[in-house]
Amino acid sequence: MKKEIQINEGKCFNRRQRFSLRKYSVGVCSVLLGTALFAVGAPTVAADGVSASTDTSKETVESVQPEADQAPQDTATTAPGETYAQGAPAPKVELPNPALAPEAKAATETPAATSEKAAEAKPAVEATPKAEATAKPATAEAGVTAEETAKPAEKAEEAKPAAAESNKPRVRSRRAATDHNNEPVAVATFLKDGEVATPDMADPNGASVRSQTVPSGYATKEGDVYTYSIVDLTRFNERYNTNYYTRAYKGFNDSTDTTVELIDKNTGNVVETRKITASSGIQKFTTTATASRGELTWQVDYNPGTGAGPGKTDQPFIQLGYEVGASIQALVNPKNEAEQKLYQDVYNARTSTDIINVVEPAYNGRTITDTNAKIPIFVDKTTYYRVVDKNNPTFNANKTDKTVQDYVPNGNEVDLARYTTKAMEGQNFTASGERQFDGYKLYQTADPDSTSGYVSRPYTVGTKFMDAERAGIKRIKEIVGEDGTVVVRVYLLDPKQQSKRSDGTLSTDGYMLLAETKPIKPGDYNKQELNVKKSPLNTIAFTDNKGVNYPNGKEVTFDFQKAAGYTPYKTVFVPFLGDGIGHLSPNSQLENGAYVQIGTNVDLLNSLTPYKQPIYYYVKQKPVEVIPEVEKQLEGRVLTDGEFTFQINRREKYS
Fold it and tell me: Dihedral of the CA atoms 616, 402, 432, 375 (nearest 10)?
């Protein structure tokens, strides 16, 4: 028997549709990401996929559709230029992160069906255009995929008696305003055949989704679009007496196309807009060049984040930073104090602050010279209701405290039900709550750490990804725990093997392993000595300004960054070796002796979001059969048919 489910398409529609979908068991494929290039940060991942049950079952999907006219159309121009400036003394670098791939969805999930009613001709009614309609954005920015564009038809206006032309009513088309910053894009539910859940699976039972809160003084883009990065131009603002920040946003869809706006914090006005796509190249904000008199230009670029390893998945990100003016890069005379001060002041002005970095919230509030933000993807966040395997050695038939998290799944558990919300990576979520199922009792509650937090993706042990790459430096992380625990390794191109330079790949042939950490938990950083630390290193061969020749280069030290203000063991300082290795300064910095203060700071940080599935475990209750025996003693007579009756009220006793 099919179960009738009520689905309310969009919270503002005054109509409901009734339908049921029959789900048949299918295989589900889990995909895990591989990882990334050109970076300045670390990845965050987690996604729940909906696992298929071995039983036929009922599964429903509700799609909450985005508004068609959501964000204003933006235009941008492509300005060629260098991605990074050269000559910066010891900048702190964290490179963009590639991420791990989301788990594939069950093939049985389909968008909610919607019925459409054709509007009847009404001679007495004249429809007028929507007065408050805004310019429609390009699909690449805030549009929706074909699967997500279907909207329920507006209810036709009631036919009215003919009226004089001058008395015709003015009817304005109305549409429900949907904002997926506060509600899921879709909801899918599953209930095993023959089972009864309380509350019913159509009830969210506490499940919710909302976007991260932005600190006071900053604003997300209005409308049904997802703001995933806000960067304050902190030191730039201090030096040039401005108050700028940028925000990056995209539509609630599968597109990676992003709009980045430069905003004046004093007025809240958008000063300049750039569109970032896979083919847009480096986009420069000329307003910043004007404000800094050509010393610094804020720019943003797209990186495909090509992945590799188990479950290879690309994780695109945007890279934000500055181009340093040519006149500043030319200041290499160490004896001219005024020039060196100007040089240092300009490079220091490149420091910015990540106000929000939704996919990697561990970076929220960090200060950095060049930053990056992973472009969010859709993630299915599922609450599972599963039956334990009584043959599992961790099962305890005498367990009384349901909050103790001592049951370890072995893969033989069976899904009773699932409640899945489709959300954007980095949003806050609350899992669906405990439910009762006829014939089952709760064995173990969901781990409290898994029932709320940031929407993220699952991890596969053995996956390697590069989340930072610059100046011959590669920071590669390997997942060593399903919760997202990683080992961090830092590689540097060997000056003697420059022909093997392999930008944008995980290949380390021709590279030196400078540092390897012990396992680091998600959201934590290195706090101890390294497993591997290579020092000293040698620069390229060169002749200094005094005519001294160094055919084998000069020795330089590789170690933790120990300057004031740095957390012990968290950051390593990769020295400049020349030829753009270790830093993008010109070789003249070797010749004049300034190289000893030039290099790149690389953080040993695990910015992944901890991943746990919210799972409630249940145990099947077996009824005990009871055979009643009744004996009635009569004095001197026999009962006749119908003279004596009794009723048994069934009370189940479970073993």
Answer: -70
Give residue 596's Cα distance to chain centre: 39
Mean pLDDT of 400-410: 95
Nearest by Cα to 318 from 549, 37, 599: 37
Query: How is residue 531 annotated by DSSP?
Result: S
* Residue 290's pLDDT band (cuts 50, 70, 90): very high
* Average pLDDT, integer, range 408-414: 95
| HSE-CB for 231 with a 13 A CA cutoff | 29
Residue 178's pLDDT is 83
Are 509 and 590 contacting, i.e. CB atoms less than 8 angstroms apart? no
The sign of the CA dihedral 368, 372, 376, 377 is: negative
Alpha helices in 128-278 (DSSP H): 139-142, 234-240
Q: Judge whether 473 and 602 are in contact, CB under 8 Å.
A: yes
pLDDT of 457-487, one tens digit each? 878 888 888 887 888 999 998 989 888 899 9
* pLDDT value, residue 632: 63
Lowest mean pLDDT among 76-85, 224-233, 256-265, 487-496: 76-85
DSSP 26-82: ---------B--S-BS---------PPPSS-EEEEEEE-PPPSS-S-----------
C-alpha to C-alpha distance for 34 and 99, rounded to whole angstroms: 7
* Rounded Cα gap, residues 142 and 124, in angstroms: 37
| pLDDT higher than 80, residue 164 | no
The rounded distance, in Å, linking the Cα atoms of 308 and 36 is: 8
Rounded to a whole number, what is the distance in angstroms from the first to the last CA of the chain?
30
Return the H-helix or E-strand segment holding 279: none
Residue with tokens 């949907």: 178
- In 3-state terms, what secondary structure has residue 230? strand
Q: Return the DSSP state at 361.
A: G
